[in-house]
Amino acid sequence: MKISERIGHVEYAIRDVILYARELEKKGRDIIYLNIGDPVLYDFKTPEHVKEAFVKAVRSGQNNYAPSEGVNELRKAIAEKEGEKGLPCGPEGVVVTNGVSEGVDMVMASILDPGDEILVPGPCYPPYSSYARLYGGVPVEYRSSEEEGWAPDLDDLRKKITKKTVAITVISPNNPTGAVYSGKALKEIAQIAAEHKLYLICDEIYDRIVFEEFESMARHADDVPLVMLNGFSKVYLMTGWRLGYIARNGRSKLLDELWENMPKMARLRIASNTTAQVAAVEALRGPQDHVREMVSKLRERRDYVMKRLDAMDGISCVRPKGAFYVFPKIDMKDRWKSDAEFVIDLLKSTGVITVHGSGFGKKYGAGHFRIVYLPPVGMLEEAMSRLEKFLK
Ligand code: PLP
Question: Who contacts 47 (Cβ-Cβ below 8 Å, separation ≥6)?
């Protein structure tokens, strides 16, 4: 039977590698999963007051469809949060989505026609390229400089703008590198977007999972057509509830037409989960203590993993400043032909599952692999010891 050509281009390396692990697990192997960025699978739990708000919403009968653009009180609370970060969007400038993932889908569907180019960081969280391709767009990677802590290479970014470019994507804190972009870099990217009249698509889903200072693109965007993507999966530990949002820069008139049209995508899929939205209001407005605790645990785990990786021959690694990933470079020697081969060899030999760097972009991700350092130190210790032995 026929399948569409476009579905053939869809890839999601992070979940694709699991298939190999499942096979090994069936044979009784003990697998250490360091491939998926889901904190709730480890010792980070959805805050109690947020869970309570969810249960209360179910019990009090809020089980109907929500408005397509989102529950009003949540849109207000999101506008407050983004407003504090420097983005004047107002509740009407917010569309609530089923995770940032659906937000990426809606944005790409709303701005790309076949042949249009979109700049994405290289390496990059894969759905940006996959959704762009799904709508016939062409993702073009701009280089991140490993020597400068995976900072965006702005000369390369400028060079890659063509007549077909419609948007620049920025992800800070970054997946997979853990880089947090400096205010100077953000300002310059915003200026480039203004100069060329491009959309600036920013993903700040890890905005509070940082070990040093964080600056939002919103502070530098002025009246640039900035479209902000953010959500509840990571900072609020609500991965399974699938909730995110798209917020606009209210200062940019250039976004008016997009904002008249994009909500049609929201209406098409009716609405996001109502009860999760009610709970998300509590997440944003209620106690925030869990964030400090999470960052402090993650700092310890990052430092531990970095200490171990630094002591290993055959890999080198930039110290991440945010999120919960490290992206080491592999010294391939003649042992492996590609990072994908390295990752499969590592999995089969040790049971440790990571993600190959080229899954985050063929050009700038190749020769690397991504480790998620969410598990407790005991599990990380075992994983690092297996990796060390493997490299030896
Ligand atoms: N954006 C980035 C940069 C991510 O790393 C992830 C998940 O790993 C997502 C979005 C997915 O977010 P959500 O769970 O809200 O769909």
Answer: 236, 237, 283, 286, 287, 289, 290
Q: What is the largest CA-CA distance in the chain?
A: 63
Residue 314 pLDDT grade (very low, low, confident, very high; cuts 50, 70, 90): very high
Contact of 201 with 107, CB cutoff 8 Å = yes
Distance (angstroms) between ligand 1 centre and the Cα of 101 equals 6
- For residue 374, what are the domain limits? 5-45+289-391
Structural domain count of the chain: 2
Residues 193, 212, single domain; the answer is yes
Please report the pLDDT score of residue 23 as a whole number.
87
Ramachandran region, residue 28 (left: φ > 0; alpha: ψ -120 to 50; beta: rest):
left
265 and 134 within one domain = yes
**Alpha-carbon distance values, 144 to 75, 363, 364 (Å):** 34, 11, 7
Spatial separation of the C-alpha atoms in residues 172 and 91, rounded to whole Å: 24
Contact 45, 173 (CB under 8 A): no
pLDDT in tens, 255-293: 999 999 999 999 999 999 999 999 999 999 999 999 999
User: Domain check: are 295 and 261 in the same one?
Assistant: no
Tokens of 57: 């919403």
Residue with tokens 């992800």: 171
Cα–Cα distance for residue pair 86/5, rounded to 1 Å = 42
- Give the Cα separation of 127 and 366 in Å (integer): 17
Between CA 218 and CA 323 the distance in angstroms is: 19
By most ligand atoms within 8 Å of CB, the mutation choice from 35, 100, 108, 238 for ligand 1 is 100
Does the beta carbon of 276 sit less than 6 angstroms from any atom of ligand 1? no
